[in-house]
Design goal:
Length: about 130
């Protein structure tokens, strides 16, 4: 079985470190970016299966990052990790398959919920590819 590649984009170093370490312990291959621009550069070097994306980033915001990342990696799936209590998914993200079930509010007390979401989102993508 191949390693599932995760890209974490968050401008808070402690969050990147904690999520990255937890996901690596769960067997995922993890890369970290502190900005949307840095995340896009990493995707151009190597695609990811799932992105865990903060919405409030310096420069490009998380919504813009997801739309641009989707252009680079159309198969990539996204989990939103935001501190904003009033965040709602814009229609453009819904159109590319981001769903409200994969929006997590910071701080996530139980990181296994993010791991479960990664597995569910990838299972769903695999099931859909077999439907065609």
């Amino acid at each position: 079985m191949r390693h599932i590649k995760i890209l974490v984009v968050d401008d808070e170093q402690v969050i990147n470190t904690n999520i990255g370490a937890y996901l690596e312990d769960e067997g995922f291959s993890v890369r970290i970016a502190a900005s949307g621009e840095e995340g896009l550069q990493l995707l151009k070097e190597e695609e990811a299966d799932v992105g865990i994306i903060d919405m409030r980033l310096p420069g490009m915001d998380g919504n813009s990052f997801i739309l641009k990342a989707h252009e680079i990696c159309p198969e990539m799936k996204f989990i939103i990790h935001t501190g904003s209590t009033n965040y709602s998914l814009p229609p453009a993200l819904k159109e590319i398959g981001v769903c409200a079930n994969y929006v997590f509010r910071k701080p996530v007390q139980d990181m296994s919920k993010i791991v479960d979401a990664i597995r569910m989102i990838l299972e769903k993508a695999t099931d859909e590819s077999f439907d065609h």
